[in-house]
From TrEMBL:
This is DUF3291 domain-containing protein. Pfam families: DUF3291 (PF11695). Residues 55-128 form the DUF3291 domain. SUPFAM superfamilies: Dimeric alpha+beta barrel.
Amino acid sequence: MPTLPWTTPNEPQPGVTTALVMASRLEVRSLKDVPRFLFQSLAAWKQVRGAQGALGASLIADPLRRTFWTLSAWESRERLYAYAKAEPHHTIVKGLRSIMRRSVFTFWEVPVDQLPITWADAKRRIAEQQAAEARS
């Protein structure tokens, strides 16, 4: 399972003591969609590495299961949303919607001195979020 390890693009700005963490599990509909998703995710990865307020990020690709995992930490929700609305991320998300099967997103806050987040913690939180969505 290919993993892009935790990268720290920026140190927290002075006074930032809490990070917003976002983790996701993204699944494409078909194996034929995997190369397209992988290619597009690398462009988004390059963007996050230069994004203001990005405190860390990691990706896992499980292509044979058509599943991709993202984990990132941000100075604020505003910084995360600015990244999501910026190019190329905005166009990538729009263009991939038709090939997506299921996506789960979860958010939480941690003290910045607890970064990086472990994948075990992120996957546990994603599973909890998925279970909560299934119940509702």
